From TrEMBL:
Top-rank taxon: Bacteria
InterPro entries for the chain: KH_dom-like_a/b (IPR015946), OsmC/Ohr_fam (IPR003718), OsmC/Ohrsf (IPR036102), OsmC_Ohr_Peroxiredoxin (IPR052707), Peroxiredoxin_OsmC (IPR019904)
Name under which the protein is recorded: OsmC family peroxiredoxin
GO biological process, one term: response to oxidative stress
Chain spans, region Disordered: 1-21
GO molecular function per UniProt: peroxidase activity
UniProt xrefs under PANTHER family: OSMOTICALLY INDUCIBLE FAMILY PROTEIN (PTHR42830)
Length: 140
């Protein structure tokens, strides 16, 4: 079993407040986030893009494992996960995660596409998200 952690600090009210996020590994350390990062265009991060990055990384690793396990070599995977946040009553809900991935490797295109679908459903972050997860996959 593995346990990894991230942390957040927040000061102030929702709209005027400011926060920072950090990860246990130190890859992120006191990275700024706030209302205008999340709902506007101010530089900084937000929870949805962090989830998107985690989802894209998890999917890519899961697919790489499946492809190499199937004997496919020269694997190259580029993935983006777009997380949709929608108004839900008085709050908001993450309603969708959409993967866009470009995959190349020495193998059968149909087999690679099938394994991409399995990785989409099976990666641990996909399993964590309680949202519709869709994907566009391009195999070169």
């Amino acid at each position: 079993m593995f346990t990894r952690s991230g942390s957040a600090k927040w000061q102030g009210g929702l709209k005027e407040g400011k926060g920072t996020v950090s990860t246990q590994s130190g890859a992120l350390k006191n990275l700024a986030y706030g209302f205008n990062n999340r709902f506007g265009d101010e530089p900084g991060t937000n929870p949805e893009e962090l989830i998107g990055a985690a989802h894209a990384a998890c999917f890519s690793m899961a697919l790489s494992n499946m492809l190499s396990g199937a004997g496919i070599g020269n694997i190259d995977i580029q993935t983006t996960s777009s997380i949709t946040l929608e108004k839900d009553g008085d709050g908001f809900t993450v309603t969708k995660a959409h993967l866009v991935t470009a995959i190349s490797g020495d193998g059968d295109k149909a087999q690679i596409e099938d394994l991409a679908q399995k990785a989409k459903a099976g990666c641990p972050i996909s399993k964590l998200l309680n949202a519709e997860i869709t994907m566009n996959a391009t195999v070169a």
